[in-house]
Design goal:
By secondary structure, this protein is α+β, with helices and mostly antiparallel strands. It has one domain. It contains 2 helices and 7 strands; from the N terminus they run E-H-E-E-E-E-E-E-H. It has a 5-stranded antiparallel β-sheet with strand order 6-3-2-1-7. The chain has a two-stranded antiparallel ribbon with strand order 4-5. Strand 4 and strand 5 form a beta hairpin. The chain is globular, with a radius of gyration of 14 Å.
């Protein structure tokens, strides 16, 4: 995934409590979004990159990360909550595929 990629939300459950306060809105499962930017993993507890989406904005703040380093970053979503799609008109096919994977 990269900036400009289209993604579909595949997981809109169990949001961090801060997401309700720090995000302009939350993604909805099955809805298509466009990635505004990919945020590299900067926290050793998380192990995955994040994404900022067009039309949804996170609060910018200072975050303390490993080795007592402080960064200024936008609150964002984990990349695993989304699946990249080539054609936004085929979103139903992607969701059906994800639902089948959950049954396995």
């Amino acid at each position: 995934m990269q900036a400009g990629s289209y993604v579909v939300c595949i997981n809109d459950s169990n949001w961090n409590k801060l997401a309700y306060k720090k995000m302009s809105e939350l993604p909805v499962k099955g809805k298509i979004y466009r990635i505004r930017r990919v945020i590299p993993n900067f926290d050793t507890n998380c192990y995955e990159d994040g994404v900022a989406l067009e039309g949804i904005f996170g609060e910018w703040d200072f975050y303390k990360i490993s080795f007592n380093k402080t960064i200024f970053e936008e609150f964002h979503f984990l990349i695993s909550r989304f699946k990249e799609i080539d054609d936004p008109t085929l979103v139903e096919d992607v969701l059906e595929e994800e639902d089948l994977l959950c049954l396995v």
